[in-house]
Design goal:
The chain has 155 residues and is mainly alpha-helical. Helices cover 60% and strands 10% of the residues.
């Protein structure tokens, strides 16, 4: 374990890893004019669009784990930058649908390549992206993400 991690709690290690990842992604996508949060939004939107979806801001918020108000703010800034379009949902006038522009798709493809390189670096100590240990780590992360977390209930 690295210095400062000996005897650390799992919660502290999760926090440190998430901060390490956020800072690395922020630095890696900055030359493309993106922040980590913007990257999370456009990369998720890119994947959803490739599946034929045009998600609402709410659906994208649920998918990314970001607050709906924050997704709205990010979407407005990405729209101003010419990377995405916002339109009223024809089936629900209260909802706003999002779609990447051609420029947004190009920037997102480049950003995904950069972040995939970071992911390969991060997972190298576990044997690489396709290793059994990484698959187990991914299952463990998914299990933790699926676990209910209520700050007001104590076991």
């Amino acid at each position: 374990m690295s210095n400062g991690s000996e005897g650390a709690t799992p919660g502290f290690l999760v926090w440190r890893l998430s901060m390490k990842w956020r800072v690395a992604v922020d630095r890696a996508v900055a030359p493309l004019g993106l922040t980590h949060a913007q990257y999370s939004l456009v990369a998720s939107l890119y994947g959803m669009q490739r599946s034929g979806l045009r998600p609402s801001q709410r659906r994208l918020a649920d998918h990314t784990g970001l607050e709906a108000l924050y997704v709205s703010k990010l979407a407005r800034s990405l729209e101003s930058a010419g990377l995405l379009e916002r339109a009223r949902d024809p089936h629900d006038p209260r909802a706003v649908q999002l779609a990447l522009t051609e420029q947004g798709r190009e920037v997102t493809r480049r950003a995904i390549d950069v972040v995939q390189g970071l992911l390969r670096q991060l997972l190298e100590p576990l044997g690489g992206l396709d290793s059994p240990r990484t698959r187990e780590f991914t299952r463990d992360l998914a299990t933790l993400l699926d676990a209910p977390l209520d700050p007001f209930s104590t076991p």
